[in-house]
Amino acid sequence: MSSPPELRLSQAFKIAQRIYASLLDARHFDASFALAARAYLAALDKLDQERLTRWLAWQTQVRNPQALTRIERVDQRLAARVLHARSRLPANGRPDLSGIPRRTA
């Protein structure tokens, strides 16, 4: 029996995720976080940008109400992708099972 492959995240993605988490959790918008977020967003490859977009879509649902506005202040294109990804998320946080449950990912 083989184990599933481990998800490997790039160092740039991990740092970008931390910066965006700090940006979203801060009491007030901090321009230094925004500049750092822009820099690390540019350093991400396409796959990591998609991962970050999906992660931010979840974060905009569970964090403070200004989360999407703060993302928009950093990068409007990223905010548009996050909004699109958020529209595809399940409403109650769990995927709907229709018919026979899938046995594979």
Report the sheet-strand fraction. under 5%
SSE arrangement, N to C: HHHHH
Form type: globular
Biggest sheet statistics:
none
Mean pLDDT: 84
Q: How many helix segments?
A: 5
Instruction: Report low-confidence residues grouped into runs of 5 or more.
Output: none
Which percent range fits the helix content?
Answer: 55-70%
Number of domains: 1
End-to-end Cα distance = 17 Å
Structural class: mainly alpha
Radius of gyration: 16 Å
Count every beta strand, where a strand is a DSSP E run of 2 or more residues.
0
Please explain how this structure is put together.
There is one protein chain. The protein has one domain. It is globular, with a radius of gyration of 16 Å. The mean pLDDT is 84. It is mostly helical and 105 residues long. Helices cover 62% and strands 0% of the residues. The relative contact order is 0.13.
Question: What labels would you give this structure?
Answer:
105 residues, mainly alpha, 5 helices, globular
Question: Gist?
Answer:
By secondary structure, the chain is mainly alpha-helical. The chain has five helices and no strands. The two termini are 17 Å apart.
Sequence-ordered SSE layout with sheet pairings:
Elements: H1 11-25, H2 31-43, H3 46-62, H4 67-74, H5 76-87
Helix pairs in contact: 1-2, 1-3, 3-5, 4-5
